[in-house]
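Q: Joint fold for the lines below.
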Amino acid sequence: KAGVTQTPRYLIKTRGQQVTLSCSPISGHRSVSWYQQTPGQGLQFLFEYFSETQRNKGNFPGRFSGRQFSNSRSEMNVSTLELGDSALYLCASRNQQRTRSTAGELFFGEGSRLTVL
Amino acid sequence: AQKVTQAQTEISVVEKEDVTLDCVYETRDTTYYLFWYKQPPSGELVFLIRRNSFDEQNEISGRYSWNFQKSTSSFNFTITASQVVDSAVYFCALSGFSNAGNMLTFGGGTRLMVKP
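A: Joint structure:
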């Protein structure tokens, strides 16, 4: 079974630009969530999507947005990039068919490492 | 608000030593989940265990064991007879029952280095 796939793995942008990151979840997983990992702030929850609807959102500015498609693939977008947006962006998917027994059991991709210059 | 604290930022041990990773949490939720994840150098987090707040039974899985104590708001992780392959960053995390574990609050992580 293929794991969570994130593209691109590495990218470099300059301040003011925008970026779109893509995530393909494990087949059959309909919940996709995004996390930002930085040395200073650690791992922080960005948002979670289920069946194309944003279900939960973390405490990030409106420059961070996301969406989910009917095939459960998800994208996140960061507009007007700032130096502080340099981070590893991790996508995770989850099997929602048995809620309690899989609660929090997220399958993570290897992440997209964004560097903002 | 929820908070997870992993006071040990880095631990170094020699292979075959036992090591305990500490985790202390704060939450106003009466029911919640606690988790441990492992992050190897490749970057992806790997799920290790989940505990429900109403289940304080300790758990052992091979060389891994977990000690959940609600009275002290702690959920510690012990690796027995550590191996070089255990070297990674370990994260403790917390989630309220209401969002069914879809929104995790992570601690800062503990980097474990196991030397041969």
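Q: Anything notable?
A: Residues 92 and 108 of chain A are 4 Å apart (CA to CA). The mean pLDDT of chain A is 92.
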